Task: structure prediction
Amino acid sequence: MPNIFGLVDEEGITNPLTSDLQGADFNIYDINELHINELHDQDGIDKIAVHEDFNMLNNRVTNMADPVSAKDAVTLTYFESNLPFVDTPYYDLMGAFGDETTPISAGVQPMRMYPPREFTATFITGTLSIVATSNNFEVQVFKNSTQIGSLIFLGGSPIATGSITSATYLTTDLITASCPLADATAAGLKITINGNQI
Result:
């Protein structure tokens, strides 16, 4: 009977093997453990296909190259260096400073707000539900009675943006708005302090 090398009346395989063991279209079943140094396909060119779930039994996969395509696995170092989000999430504080239809009067507006969390601000934006009659309708924004910026609604625009002079906001900071002049139609003032969460 031939042995696994195809030789007739020769001895079987040695343990450990001292020659390459080549198979042609055959399967190996019921192996409890398999210890190998390298794993290649038959010709060393094609990728090895895994046809079932591959259970790592709580062990790590190490020494991986950086990913090239969408389904490639990544190392922790690569992931932390290429986070899909910013380290400091955006955080905007928005409040309404009056109802939607009542024309805005001069002076401090009736509403006020406190930040629900600490954050850093970069600029302010404002919107009106009903645009102003004045071409340059101004809204001043205050933090603890100190003006931190102003919004100028130009040419009847419902949106205005402005710079801000105070960067850090605490939960105890009181935000108010004041209008130097009243307007016959401007209403529905909303102010957003745009920034990032600390």
User: Anything to note?
Assistant: Residues 90-197 form a domain with the Jelly Rolls fold (CATH 2.60.120.260).
